[in-house]
Design goal:
900 residues, alpha+beta, 9-stranded antiparallel beta sheet, 17 helices, globular
Length: 900
C-alpha cells in the first residue's frame, strides 16, 4: 500500500472517516458471536481457567482479517494484571440475534460489584459498554477499569495515533516508568505463595505510554488497524510486558464514580478491507515425502474464496526455474469449523527432487521428494531438546552453554501440606522417616526439565524413559552425538562418546526414579519450585538456585562449607498413587532391558526395584489419596505437568504429549494421560493399571511369572475396541508370549478397531485426532503414528503404513492454520519461537515438539508463529519430544522398507 502524506492521514482520522475499510455491519450469527466479513467478536465463549486463571483466551476477543488481535476484554482491578490476579465471576451470557448484541453478567462479589458487559453492533463496528447495577464502590475508584489486551507480536513496531495528532510507535521492549499499586484493604486473601510473589515484585504496575479519547492502533498496518473512541473516560495504553514477558499491550479506561448505565462506553472501529477473503493455506509436509507413498496436501480455504478446481506441483530446477511436474484436481470443499477444506493428491509424483505446490498463484516453500525424507526428523529432538532439558548437569554445544549444572541443592520434603501453585499437592506432612522440611538425600541426580519450566514431573520422566527405551530396542537406535559424563555432571553436544544417546538418556532418567525408591520406597509426584519467583524463571536453570544446601543456621547471604542461608532448595512432593507406582515399575523394567550390556549394575538395580515394587503393590496396593486430582487440574484431569506425555505411561509405548506444568487442561489424546482423575477407579482408568508393568516385565524377564500370567489375565479386556487405542494395542509387543488362540483374538480385535478408527478419523479433513480442547493436540497425533506403526508391523494386511505417515506429515506441516512444522527447526518452515526456558529471547530449542493449534471458542483455529508465549500452543514437553523420537523413527523405517 502506498504511503499517504501524514497530514492526509491525520486529517482522515480526526474527521472520523473510514479511509481504508468498508462500513462494517455486524450480526450475531448462529454460533452466537458478532460477525461480519473480515471481523468477528467473541464474548465469553470460554472462561478463565479455574487453576491457571488468565491464559489469554477468554472474555471479549476480536478476530480481524484472520488474526486474533485482542483478548481478555473485561473489567479488571489492575492496569496490567498478571496470570493469577483477580478476575470477575461470570454469572451468565446472552446472544441477542434480533438486536445483534452480546451481553455477559459479571461480578466481583467481594466488592459487591455487579455489572453487565455488552458488545453491540453499530455502524462501522461495535459499541462496548459496561453497565453497573450500583455506582462504583468508593474503594474501587481509580482501580476498576475496562481492559482490552492487544497481541504484542502484531502491534510492536507499528504506529499508533492519539486524538488524531499525537503519534507514536508501539515499543519492542517495555521501558515505561513503574509505580507502586498496593493491594486493597479488603481484597480477597490470596494463597500464601501469591502474596509472597506480589511482595517480591513490589506491587508494581507500569504507567501508560499513551493517553487520549481516541486511539488508532496499527495505523500503518492495513490488516490490524483499529480505532477506539471512549465517551466516558480517557483511554490509556499500557505495556503488560513490563510485569511479565508474556504480557500484552493493554488499552484501558477507568470506571468513573457516580455512574451506572454506560459507565464505560467505547466505540471500536476496525478498518476492514472491503470483501476481504482469507488467502488459501496449503498444508503439506515441510520435510517432503517418500516416493512410493501417498502425498496429499490439504487446502484450508475461506468459505468466500473462489478459486480454481486444480492445483499444480512444480519442480525446482538447478538453475532456479520451475517446471510443471503434475497438475490434478482438488476435492470438493468440506466445511469444518470456521473454514472449508479441499485435498490435493499428488501421489503420482515420484521422481526424487525439489518441488513446490502451487494453487491459484500461491506457492509453498520448497520440499524434497526423497527416499530418506524422514531419516532425520527425530534427531534434533533426541540430540538437542531432550539433551538440553537434562537436569543436574551442565549442557554445552560448541561455544554455547545452554545451562550450567542445575539444582545441585535438591531437595527438601515439601513443608506445606495441601494444594500449591500449578496444581501440585503434598498429601501428608510426613513420609516414612522424613517430615516436611527435611532434606531428602540423593535427589540431585538425573531427570529432565518438564517443559518451559524446570520442575521434574515424575510422569514425564517415566514417559521419556519408556519412549527412548522402546526406540532403542525397536529400531536398534545406536545414534551417538552426545558425550555424557554423569560423574562430572557434564554433557556436550556433537561429541560422540561411543554409547548410544538413547541408552545414556534412559540411564539419566532411571537415576531420578531409582533415587525416589531409595529415599521413600515408592514413586513420587516430583520435584517442584518452592515459590513463584523460581517458577517464572527464564534462562539458565543453574541460576535459579545457588546450588548449595540450605542451612537455617546461616544468615540469608552467608555461605559455609557448601551450605548457604538461602532457602531456595526445591521441594519434593512425595505424594503417590497406584497409577504412578505401576508406571514406575513399567519404566524401570524398560530401563533394565535397555541398559543390559551397557551398565549391568544399573540394569540390575532397575529390574530388582521394579520386581520389588510389583510384589509390594500386589501385597499392599497403594491407595488414591482422598479428594486428590493428582496435579490439581479441574475437569477431572491430571493437572499441570502431571500429564507429562501420555506415552510411556502405557507399557513403554510412545504416546501423546500432554499439558506441562504451566498448562492447564490436558490435551486431547488417545493414549493414557500420566495420572488419573479424582475418584479414578471406574471406567477405562481403573482397568488394568498394572497392564503396562505386566507387558514390560514380561519382555524384560523373557516371559517369567507372575508377569506373563497377569498379562494373559488382562489380555481379553485390554484388546476390546474401547481400550485398544487407550493402551490395549501394546499387546502386539507381547506377541511372542501369546498362544495361537490369543493371537487370533488379537487379530480380530485389530480388525474391529480399524473400522472404528476410520469412522472417527473421517470426521476431520486431516484424518487424525482433532485438537478440540484447551491444549494443542499434537501429542495425540504422535501417539497415533506410533500405535499404527506397531499395528502395521504385526498385521500389514490389516493396517496400512499410510496411517503412520499421515500422522507424521501432520506434525510436519499438514495441519490447520498454517503449514509450519510443529518440530522446532525441522523442515523448510518450522516453529522458531517456542514456550521453552529460552522464550524470553523469542527463541526456540531445536527438536522441541509444540502442542499446535487450538480452537479459540467457538470456532477459530489458532497457532501463532510469531509469539511463543501461549503455553497451550507452544510449550514443548520433554515427553512429547521423546514420543516423537519413536514416531519419527517409525516413519523412517516404513519408508526405508519400501525401497526397491
Amino acid at each position: 500500500m502506498p504511503t499517504l502524506p501524514r497530514v492526509c492521514l491525520v486529517a482522515a482520522l480526526s474527521s472520523g472517516l473510514n479511509l481504508f475499510g468498508a462500513e462494517v455491519a455486524m450480526r450475531v450469527n448462529d454460533k452466537d458471536y458478532l460477525d461480519a466479513r473480515g471481523f468477528s467478536v467473541f464474548l465469553y465463549d470460554s472462561t478463565y481457567h479455574p487453576v491457571f486463571v488468565d491464559q489469554k483466551n477468554t472474555a471479549m476477543e476480536m478476530i480481524l482479517h484472520g488474526q486474533r488481535i485482542t483478548t481478555n476484554g473485561d473489567v479488571r482491578l489492575m492496569p496490567t494484571p498478571e496470570q493469577w490476579d483477580l478476575v470477575a465471576t461470570l454469572k451468565g451470557r446472552t446472544a441477542d440475534k434480533e438486536n445483534h448484541r452480546l451481553a455477559a453478567e459479571l461480578a466481583f462479589p467481594t466488592f459487591d460489584l455487579n455489572y453487565t458487559l455488552e458488545v453491540a453492533a453499530e455502524p462501522g463496528g461495535v459499541r462496548i459498554s459496561v453497565n453497573l447495577d450500583q455506582p462504583l464502590p468508593e474503594k474501587l475508584a481509580g482501580r476498576a477499569g475496562f481492559n482490552l489486551e492487544f497481541l504484542p507480536s502484531i502491534y510492536m513496531g507499528k504506529a499508533y495515533l492519539v486524538d488524531g495528532t499525537q503519534a507514536g510507535i508501539f515499543p519492542r521492549t517495555p521501558g515505561d516508568p513503574m509505580t507502586t499499586v498496593l493491594p486493597l484493604a479488603d481484597e480477597p486473601k490470596k494463597a500464601y505463595y501469591l502474596e509472597d510473589w506480589d511482595k517480591a515484585k513490589g506491587y508494581t504496575q507500569p504507567q501508560p505510554f499513551a493517553t487520549g479519547r481516541t486511539i488508532t492502533l496499527g495505523v500503518d498496518d492495513a490488516l490490524a488497524r483499529v480505532t477506539v473512541t471512549s465517551d466516558t473516560a480517557d483511554l490509556m495504553l499500557f505495556d503488560g510486558r513490563a510485569r511479565a514477558q508474556n504480557g500484552w499491550f493493554v488499552l484501558r479506561s477507568l470506571i468513573p464514580t457516580g455512574k451506572t448505565k454506560g459507565a464505560i462506553v467505547w466505540h471500536l472501529r476496525p478498518d476492514v478491507i472491503p470483501n476481504w477473503t482469507r488467502p488459501p493455506m496449503i498444508a503439506h509436509s515441510q520435510v517432503g515425502y517418500a516416493p512410493e507413498f501417498a502425498k496429499v496436501a490439504v487446502l484450508e480455504l475461506d468459505p468466500n474464496y473462489r478459486g480454481p478446481s486444480t492445483a499444480r506441483v512444480l519442480r525446482l530446477m538447478e538453475d532456479g526455474s520451475y517446471k510443471q511436474a503434475f497438475e490434478g484436481p482438488i476435492t470438493p470443499a468440506t466445511p469444518w469449523l470456521r473454514y472449508v477444506y479441499s485435498k490435493f493428491d499428488f501421489t503420482p509424483v515420484k521422481e526424487s527432487g525439489l518441488y513446490v505446490i502451487e494453487y491459484d498463484g500461491r506457492r509453498t516453500a520448497a520440499f524434497p521428494i526423497a527416499r530418506d525424507a524422514y531419516a532425520n526428523v527425530w534427531k534434533s529432538s533426541l540430540g538437542h531438546h531432550i539433551a538440553i532439558q537434562m537436569d543436574h548437569v551442565s549442557v554445552r554445544e560448541g561455544y554455547r552453554v545452554w545451562h550450567g549444572a542445575s539444582h545441585l541443592d535438591d531437595a527438601i520434603l515439601a513443608p506445606v501440606v495441601g494444594e500449591q501453585f500449578d496444581g501440585w499437592n503434598q498429601a501428608t506432612a510426613t513420609d516414612g522417616k522424613y517430615k516436611g522440611g527435611d532434606r531428602i538425600p540423593g535427589m540431585n541426580v538425573g531427570g529432565w526439565y518438564d517443559a518451559g519450566d524446570f520442575d521434574l514431573e515424575t510422569p514425564a520422566q517415566l514417559s521419556v524413559i519408556q519412549s527412548l527405551a522402546l526406540a532403542y530396542r525397536e529400531f536398534a537406535l545406536d545414534y551417538d552425538q552426545l558425550t555424557v559424563n554423569e560423574a562430572a555432571r557434564e554433557v556436550e553436544l556433537h561429541r560422540p562418546d561411543g554409547i548410544p544417546d538413547t541408552v545414556q538418556q534412559v540411564k539419566h532418567g532411571a537415576a531420578y526414579v531409582l533415587a525416589q525408591f531409595r529415599a521413600f520406597g515408592h514413586s513420587i509426584r516430583g520435584t517442584h519450585e518452592p515459590d513463584l519467583r523460581q517458577y517464572t524463571h527464564l534462562g539458565d536453570g543453574a541460576t535459579k538456585t545457588d546450588g548449595r544446601i540450605y542451612d537455617p543456621n546461616l544468615g540469608p547471604n552467608e555461605v559455609k562449607d557448601g551450605y548457604s542461608g538461602r532457602p531456595d532448595d526445591r521441594w519434593i512432593f512425595s505424594t503417590t498413587n497406584p497409577f504412578f507406582q505401576w508406571q514406575s515399575i513399567a519404566a524401570l523394567a524398560a530401563a533394565a532391558d535397555t541398559l543390559k550390556g551397557w551398565d549391568d549394575v544399573t540394569a540390575k538395580e532397575c529390574l530388582e526395584t521394579a520386581i520389588k515394587a510389583w510384589n509390594d503393590e500386589k501385597a499392599n496396593p497403594t491407595p488414591f489419596p482422598a479428594n486428590s486430582h493428582f496435579g490439581g487440574s479441574p475437569e477431572g484431569a491430571p493437572a499441570a505437568g502431571v500429564l507429562a506425555a501420555s506415552q510411556g505411561v502405557v507399557a513403554g509405548a510412545p504416546g501423546a504429549q500432554a499439558a506441562p506444568a504451566s498448562a492447564g487442561t490436558p490435551p486431547t489424546t488417545t493414549a493414557t494421560p500420566a495420572a488419573p482423575p479424582a475418584g479414578a477407579g471406574r471406567g477405562r482408568w481403573g482397568q488394568g493399571m498394572d497392564w503396562p508393568a505386566a507387558v514390560e516385565l514380561t519382555i524384560a524377564t523373557k516371559g517369567a511369572e507372575p508377569y506373563k500370567a497377569r498379562l494373559k489375565e488382562l489380555f481379553p479386556r485390554m484388546i476390546t475396541v474401547d481400550l485398544m487405542e487407550f493402551r490395549g494395542w501394546m499387546a502386539v509387543r507381547a506377541l511372542p508370549y501369546l498362544d495361537e488362540s490369543e493371537k487370533a483374538q488379537l487379530r480380530e480385535a485389530v480388525k474391529a478397531y480399524m473400522v472404528q478408527l476410520d469412522q472417527e478419523m473421517s470426521a476431520t479433513p486431516f484424518g487424525v485426532p482433532p485438537s478440540l480442547r484447551t491444549w494443542g493436540g499434537s501429542g495425540a497425533v504422535v501417539d497415533m503414528a506410533t500405535r499404527m506403526y506397531f499395528l502395521h508391523k504385526a498385521y500389514p494386511d490389516l493396517v496400512s503404513p499410510e496411517y503412520t505417515l499421515r500422522a507424521v506429515n501432520y506434525i510436519l506441516g499438514t495441519h490447520p492454520v498454517n503449514s509450519t512444522s510443529y518440530v522446532a527447526g525441522v523442515g523448510t518452515v518450522s516453529k522458531t519461537k517456542t514456550y521453552s526456558f529460552n522464550r524470553g529471547d523469542n527463541a526456540y530449542i531445536p527438536g522441541a515438539v509444540v502442542p499446535g493449534y487450538i480452537i479459540i471458542k467457538p470456532d477459530f483455529p489458532e497457532c501463532l508463529d510469531d509469539f511463543g508465549y501461549l503455553w497451550f500452543e507452544h510449550e514443548a514437553v520433554v515427553a512429547g519430544s521423546a514420543s516423537w523420537v519413536v514416531a519419527g523413527n517409525a516413519a523412517a523405517a516404513l519408508t526405508k522398507q519400501a525401497q526397491p
